């Protein structure tokens, strides 16, 4: 379906590698991977390119998530419940975006991100691991938050990984290291939900997605090792840089293009 020059191959490999590395540490790898895909394949439908991005992200993010589980105890029951909620909500969001416009949400998103950034800068969220809720209440809050973010991920998507981190650090009281695996599994679940809709509607190219996935996976392995080596303070700083960049990017997309 597509021909690649050596330059384009190297360009896509580098973009996917960097996306996987950045995504594994702070989230936001799609800010690199998606523009790269659109630059190389301007003739492919946007939905096909977005699904290729999600295929690569699912594989890369899953790899880095398991890397984090090797170091920290993962609350698997909590993860399983909230991932199920994120998956189903993402399916609904992805289907809805094919039926109605989402420009209103694009316009509101940068301001919402900026408010969250300021809100979190004024706290020590993510530096101390002190879960605020237990058992059923924790599961209920996590599942509700995952449903809202999962729906958003299917409907629009930018910054979903950062929102999952905020759910676990700011609302549930986890630190960044213990948030890493759950937030990434949630991101995988909502990406899979959206992918199901893309696949059902015929918007996918497995060759392109898997090609990008190999480099994304390698980048994710490198990034997760860096994050584990330098700990919560490093991840917190990287997280704020990522959300700041995402705020500027979404503002540009909504009002200057």
Could you describe the 3D structure shown?
This is Probable membrane transporter protein. Keywords: Cell membrane, Membrane, Transmembrane, Transmembrane helix, Transport. It comes from Polynucleobacter paneuropaeus. InterPro entries: TM_pro_TauE-like (IPR002781), TSUP (IPR052017). It is a multi-pass membrane protein. The protein has helices spanning 6-25, 30-40, 46-69, 76-97, 103-121, 135-155, 160-171, 176-201, 206-255. The chain has one domain. The longest helix is centred in the last third of the chain and has 50 residues, at 206-255. It is an all-alpha fold and 257 residues long. The model has no long low-confidence stretch (mean pLDDT 86). Helix 4 (76-97) runs parallel beside helix 8 (176-201) and helix 6 (135-155) packs across helix 8 (176-201). The chain is built from nine helices and no strands. It is globular, with a radius of gyration of 17 Å.
